[in-house]
Amino acid sequence: MASPAPAPPVVQKFKPTGGSVVGYASIVLLGAAVVVTLVSEPNLLGVRVALGILLLMLLTWVALLRPRADATRDTLRLRNLVSDHYVPLARIDGVMVRQMLLVWVGNDRYACVGIGRSARQLMGNKRKRGPMAVLGIEQTDDRMGLEQSPQVDGSVDYATFVENRIEDLARSARRDLPDESAEVRREWARPELTALVVVGAMFVLSLVIG
């Protein structure tokens, strides 16, 4: 039996723009709370409380730490709370970062909640830039337009870097990997969903038993 083809290497990882510090700190504190609870209350009540904390840890991971984005040479992966979208870079028609990262393929819009601009950044934008810039066309698009954050000391903010980088990857994919048959696909976050169901069921069972 032939071995499955190796996954294509990731050429760009986009870090989340908010919540990571709070998320990781919360995971550490909640994990410590689970240990303390089980040691100090080695009974049904302790198990019940520990399961509740574990459920809260999973929700913290799903909401604050899981959402992010990365890209291979031909695909942009948008990770959200409980599912991922795999978007062929060659088919991307528009990209912008508002409260979240938005990507257009034709009339279909896909989002990643892990990357976004703050309300202050959105209010402070000075120059409009249409999402069709991915096609090399600098224009304002009232339907999907976004004012770009101003440059500071010759550099751009991280959200603008994300827009520019995805545009560059999309142009390269259209030039080098023009696969018009590739479709956007969605995959569910099975490990997280399974863990939520199992821990949630155990927590409910502990309440029923008690």
What would your notes on this structure say?
With 210 residues, the chain is an alpha+beta fold. The chain contains five helices and ten strands, in the order E-H-H-E-E-E-E-E-E-H-E-E-H-E-H. The chain has helices at residues 20-40, 44-65, 119-123, 158-176, 190-209, and strands at residues 12-14, 68-71, 75-79, 83-88, 94-97, 101-105, 108-112, 127-129, 146-148, 185-188. The longest helix has 22 residues, at 44-65.
Structural features:
five-stranded antiparallel β-sheet, alpha+beta, 210 residues
Contiguous low-pLDDT stretches (5 residues minimum) are: 133-154
Mean pLDDT: 84
Radius of gyration: 21 Å
Helix content: 40-55%
Major sheet characteristics: 5 strands, antiparallel
Strand content: 15-25%
Order of helices and strands: EHHEEEEEEHEEHEH
Number of helices: 5
User: Terminal Cα separation, in Å?
Assistant: 51 Å
Would you tell me the structural class of the helices and strands?
alpha+beta
User: How many β strands by DSSP?
Assistant: 10
Shape: elongated
Trace the largest sheet across and list its strands: 1-2-3-4-10
The oligomerization state is single chain
